Amino acid sequence: MKNINFRLYVAIFGSFLFLNSVAFSQEKGSTNSSQLDVVLPNYQYEFVPDFTYEEVNERIQKMELEMEFELNEQVFSYIQFFTIRNRNWIKMVLARKEQYFPMYEETMKNHGMPVEIQNLSIIESGLDPKIKSRVGAMGLWQFMPATGREYGMLVNSHIDDRMDPEKSTEAAAKYLKALYKMFGDWEVALAAYNCGPGNVLKAIRRSGGKTTFWGIYDYLPKETRNYVPQFQAMLYILNHLEEHNLRLEEPSYPLEYEHVQFDRAFNLERLSTLSGICLSDLEKLNPSINQGHVPESNRSMSIRIPKTKAFFIKENLAWLGDSLGKSSPVLTSNTTQLTANNTTSSSGTKLTYKVKSGDFLSKIAANHGVSLEDLKEWNKLKSTVIHTGQILYLYSQGQGATSGESSRALAQNSSSSKTYTVKPGDSLWNISQKHSLSIEEIKRLNNLNSTTIKPGQRLIVG
């Protein structure tokens, strides 16, 4: 209420200054409209709707939930805190929500659990898969190392599955379900998730055998007494965003991906170089890989690959797997498999390319920025006929080719890029969906530093 009174005071005081300014201008005989515009107050602030305990309680009564939810002063105070004082944090969470909640909901349903349990991850981590607590808990569901290992997650210096969204969510569902079986109450199970089942059992004994969260509330650790009311406040808020003017203009959506197994040790940066996949996309999709490196001990683990690149990766899996283990320079494109050998000359680095099904000579030349005639000359070809499995030789700087020819070939590649003209109402998200690209890929192709776009702007989309 103090915030509301302060804004009211500012508005009244501003109006007072404005009216006095107008009166002063009239006394001077100057009522020019442009002068009035100069003194017109312009206050920019976000409207925060007021609400009462009774209004919130009435909304809660109408909510269709699988869990029991009863409003009290503790829950109401956290609703006030999140919707008034901590709005920026709520908006940050909302921006991340769509990345994880569809997967959360599916997992909860698969385990026969109330779907509302998914909101617990917000209280645990703010939906940050890499966040670490002061006591060493990690990931979206804040598992300690021992509990993570108990539920089948790898936790070591190279791979930490606590940061893997799918694996940690599956483990959290199993753990919470086990706690529910132990206590027979979801709120008590949430409390045990926070402070451990031992502390909850102790609270039950000290309360004289009560078995509900509010029955044992006074005997729980202080952090846990706040933990469950925060969860319930979040449950209410996510069901009533409009009533609290919490609107999100551009949420962050997950990258679509497929799992690929390379069966070898490698680092993500090398995979990015070979495949043309944005390194930040690989890191975002595989947060459990520490230091960007898959060690020999975890060579059999599968890697998430953006769906737009999955076909290329699978088509070239044997070559990529071999090249990931080499340190020699590699020249690649998104549609070819090309490796370099160690011989260099004044003409440039000699490279080999193995023809695959669907290839034709002009396509190979164009994809690598060389002329068709150079490619024929390097391989002593009298025609453009090639066959699957044939080995072709190329040079990073064309042997006998001029820089002008190489430039023309590259220019042909550039001119063949697909473009899209931004329309009113467009966002990078819906453009990315139309063209099967990630938002990061569009930003990279167009050298964008933010997601801000304007109608009429031309974007490269392929």
Describe the structure.
The chain has 462 residues and is mainly alpha-helical. It has four domains: 2-39; 53-244, Lysozyme (Orthogonal Bundle); 328-416, LysM domain (Membrane-bound Lytic Murein Transglycosylase D, Chain A); 419-460, Roll (Membrane-bound Lytic Murein Transglycosylase D, Chain A). Helix content is 49%, strand content 9%. The chain is built from 21 helices and nine strands. The strands form four sheets. It has a three-stranded antiparallel sheet with strand order 5-6-7, with no helix packed on it. Helix 5 crosses helix 8. It is elongated, with a radius of gyration of 30 Å. It starts with a helix and ends with a strand.
How many domains, in number, for the residues?
4
Order of helices and strands: HHHHHHHHHHHHEEHHEEHHEEHHEHEHHE
- SS field, number of helical segments: 21
Low-confidence stretches are 1-37, 327-347, 397-416
**Proportion of residues in extended strands:** 5-15%
CATH architecture of the largest domain: Orthogonal Bundle
- Structural category is mainly alpha
CATH class of the largest domain: Mainly Alpha
Major beta-sheet overview: 3 strands, antiparallel
Q: Can you lay out the helices and strands and say which pair or pack?
A:
Blueprint: H1 2-27, H2 33-39, H3 53-62, H4 73-85, H5 87-110, H6 120-125, H7 145-150, H8 165-183, H9 186-195, H10 197-206, H11 213-216, H12 222-239, E1 257-261, E2 266-267, H13 268-275, H14 279-285, E3 293-294, E4 302-306, H15 307-315, H16 317-323, E5 338-345, E6 348-354, H17 361-367, H18 372-378, E7 391-395, H19 403-415, E8 419-421, H20 428-434, H21 439-445, E9 458-460
Antiparallel strand pairs: 1-4, 2-3, 5-6, 6-7, 8-9
